[in-house]
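Hi team,

Below is the intake form for DUF4136 domain-containing protein from Dyadobacter fermentans. Please confirm the fields before the structure is written into the shared record.

FORM ID: S-0412
PROTEIN: DUF4136 domain-containing protein
ORGANISM: Dyadobacter fermentans
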Amino acid sequence: MFKKASFLLLIVGLGFMSCSKDPISDLSNEESLVYITNHDKAANFSQYKTFSIVDSVLVVENNRAGTSLDDIDRAMLQRLITNMQNMGYKYVSRTQNPDVGINVSWITNTYLNVVSQPLSSYYGGYWGGYGYGFPSYYGYYQTSESSWLISMLDFKNPQTTPSGKTFNVIWDAQIRGSAIGDQALVDKMADSIFGQSEYLKIK
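The structure came back. Fields below:
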């Protein structure tokens, strides 16, 4: 009786779990957004006063790259400018020797995944062992993930190398999620990465 009751409880428990909400699939597009920010711990942001920003978005897909300036790109660039100004930085052109520069990229990585059928070696061995024949085969499926990448470069303190000047990245932010291509959420995305980067504020 005890074993049977335990078994029934297990079935009920499994049924309950199968009917419960999936915390991932139940997220709205906006709730799926993830913001990752990082900065150079040695950087003294109070030394920077002016900034400039790229005039288009760099689009990188696997080993290919180009630029884009559609409506959502313009909206993102403008909102980044607004946030930098709210942090106390003065917006200047690239010809006016800005202290920092803002790069904006749209990164897409595509992966080819391989899965072997049957999924379990147990079943493959069982059918093969009894002579019925259950040949394995490979299935292929492709996944693709995109993200925004925003970087701040230190133009005020360039590094001199034999090949020329290089500039350190002193802050960057990545935005991921199913809604990153939604123009209606551009302001929220840009505001959020600055909202969790209070150390950038100079006023």
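SUMMARY LINE: The first strand starts at residue 34 and ends at 39.

Thanks, M.
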